[in-house]
Amino acid sequence: MRFLIIFLPVALSFQHAVPSPPKRDQITKRRRFIGRGLAALASSGGVALSSDRANAFDPISFFAPYPAQAEGSSPIVYSDDSIMDKKEHGTTSIALDPSKLQYNVDPSLANKICSFNRHFAEPAGSFENNEAYMRAISNLKDGETLTFYDSVYNTPLFTAPVGRTKEEFLQESY
After folding, report:
1. Plot region of 103 (φ>0 → left; ψ -120 to 50 → alpha; else → beta)
2. Which UniProt keywords apply (predicted)?
């Protein structure tokens, strides 16, 4: 009986140390934070954390469970920070062509994000307010995909949704 009396208060005190599961909005905030970091990393071409490419950490492959490189796209370029040095048009050699933008994307915002931005990406959830984009996603039939292009050089970047439904793809986009 003494054993129970001594350890019961200790056991009860540990009950309060167990964290409760995160709430849905906390999960969404975490996903946004991770997504923004990955978007910034992807827009910079990725950064090798090792000078030895064979042993370099590939953050895109590590975090992206559905690698879906678009047909005809270029491989990921590993470089040091100089890849973001000032060029003819911000951090790119040419300006984007507004006529090549899809889904009624705002050319000034696209230009700012692609050529004059070293950190972050578009405002969180901005795709939700883009009716043309949301219509294109909702019109996808099972197994169909969309190809996403580099806004400056107009080269294919990735194809989605691959290995998941369009609903799962949209949920991951938050």
Report:
1. left
2. Signal
Q: What does the domain layout of the chain look like in residue ranges?
A: 20-172
Kindly provide the residue ranges of all beta strands, DSSP E only, lying in 21-165, ordered along the sequence: 146-149, 156-160
Residue with the two structure tokens 């042993």: 55
Residue appearing with tokens 């490189």: 69
Task: Give the global pTM.
Answer: 0.54
* Structure tokens given for 115: 């050529």
Burial of residue 16 (CB within 10 Å: 0-12, 13-18, 19+) is: exposed
CA distance 29 to 88: 36
* Sign of the C-alpha dihedral computed for residues 44, 76, 65 and 113 taken in this order: positive
- Ranges in the chain, pLDDT < 70: 1-74
pLDDT of residue 66: 47
Q: What ranges in 44-92 are assigned the alpha helix state H?
A: 59-63
What is the residue-wise DSSP string for 60-105?
Answer: HHHH-SS--BPTTPPPPPPB-GGGGS-BTBBTBSS---GGG--TT-
Q: Are 79 and 47 spatial neighbours (Cβ–Cβ below 8 Å)? A: yes
CB 124 within 8 A of CB 36: yes
Tokens standing for residue 97: 């062509």
